[in-house]
From TrEMBL:
Enzyme's top EC category: transferase
Coarse class of the protein's main subcellular location: cytoplasm
Domain YrdC-like, first and last residues per copy: 10-195
Keywords (A to Z) from UniProt: ATP-binding, Cytoplasm, Nucleotide-binding, Nucleotidyltransferase, Transferase, tRNA processing
Protein name according to UniProt: Threonylcarbamoyl-AMP synthase
């Protein structure tokens, strides 16, 4: 992906900020995955996110804020919401009632009366948000339904060099943010993610409920087949001849192509490696990927969620 870009790649935060302020798209790093950013107050800019990703318009975007003051202009924070927001900055998105007249483009929230907000914990993302001075709508920077990118290279590959990317190195969490809807005093997890549910419960001394699988309340974007690599996936299993193997922990010897998410069995390392290794196996043209069992605790919840979506029948 070199020498064929239709524009100069932004080299600095200020260059990326001017693209965004002028209504352009620019991908940027966060601690979870790369986001495809646009000025969330500019309807045309936000529309081009949906076009570029091929994303259905009914699927609202996460709005990224520089700080709590910016977030409070967009949503109404109850005392319960304020407590959870104390975990910001971080890989946590809160779904809150939208503040009327908040200036967000309707398309950014798909016309809902709630808004999904987060303050990312990444120095480049925060510097960019401050430089733009406006909230940024940013879904993961991949064509809709494909794997999320954890490096600038994967963003360029995914969009064939059609969007400028501010390169901030590889993402340290590697899976998307955890999404929690605050409803009265209840905390309902709509998507598992890089902040483990058990850690949130521990930090807040509160229970985080799981959204019912088919509840209308669930995040509209949680389609069953998602995050899909080209290869077919077989989960919780050992590899057969001719397959690639995505291992975890101490793995038995295998002759074929192997990636180990974490030889030491560390779920944080596994989350960080998940999309990157699936991207690699895809790039090598693997047809079937057998995946070792991953413990369903802590970050394993998010890893297994993404693996199940990647393995789901394709529509
Ligand atoms: O880590 C992340 O969250 C990354 C980085 C870039 O911040 N972003 C990300 O965005 O994963 P995206 O668009 O791929 O996922 C956003 C999810 C979708 O499932 C969407 O349906 C849900 O958030 N969502 C957005 N607004 C919502 C709302 N008001 N109520 C419920 N779900 C909402
Ligand atoms: Mg996404």
């Amino acid at each position: 992906m070199n020498g064929e870009l239709a524009f100069p790649e932004p080299k600095t935060v200020d260059e990326a900020a001017s693209i965004l302020r002028a209504g352009g798209l620019c991908a940027f790093p966060t601690e979870t995955v790369y986001g495809l950013g646009a000025d969330a107050t500019n309807a045309d800019a936000v529309l081009s996110i949906y076009e570029t990703k091929g994303r259905p318009r009914f699927n609202p975007l996460i709005i990224h804020c520089a700080d709590l003051a910016m977030a409070e202009t967009l949503a109404v924070f109850s005392p319960a919401a304020r407590k959870v927001a104390a975990l910001w900055p971080g890989p946590l998105t809160l779904v809150l009632p939208a503040r009327p007249g908040n200036g967000l483009a309707d398309v950014a929230t798909a016309g809902l009366d709630t808004v999904a907000i987060r303050i990312p914990d990444h120095p480049v993302a925060l510097e960019l948000l401050r430089a733009v001075g406006r909230p940024l709508a940013a879904p993961s920077a991949n064509p809709s339904g494909r794997l999320s990118p954890t490096t600038a290279y994967q963003v360029r590959l995914g969009f064939a060099g059609r969007v400028p990317v501010l390169d901030g190195g590889p993402c340290r969490a590697g899976v998307e943010s955890t999404i929690i809807r605050v409803e009265g005093d209840r905390l309902i997890q709509l998507r598992s993610g890089a902040m483990a549910r058990a850690d949130i419960e521990l930090a807040l001394g509160a229970v985080v409920e799981l959204a019912e699988k088919d509840a209308a309340i669930a995040a509209p974007g949680m389609l069953l087949s998602h995050y899909a690599p080209e290869a077919l996936m077989r989960l919780d299993t050992e590899p057969r001849d001719g397959e690639a193997y995505l291992a975890f922990g101490a793995a038995a010897a295998f002759e074929g192509p192997v990636r180990n998410l974490s030889p030491s069995g560390d779920l944080k390392e596994a989350a960080r490696n998940l999309f990157a290794m699936l991207h690699e196996l895809d790039a090598e043209g693997r047809k079937v990927i057998a995946v070792a069992p991953i413990p369903d605790e802590g970050l394993g919840e998010a890893i297994n969620d993404r693996l199940q979506r990647a393995a789901a029948p394709r529509g």
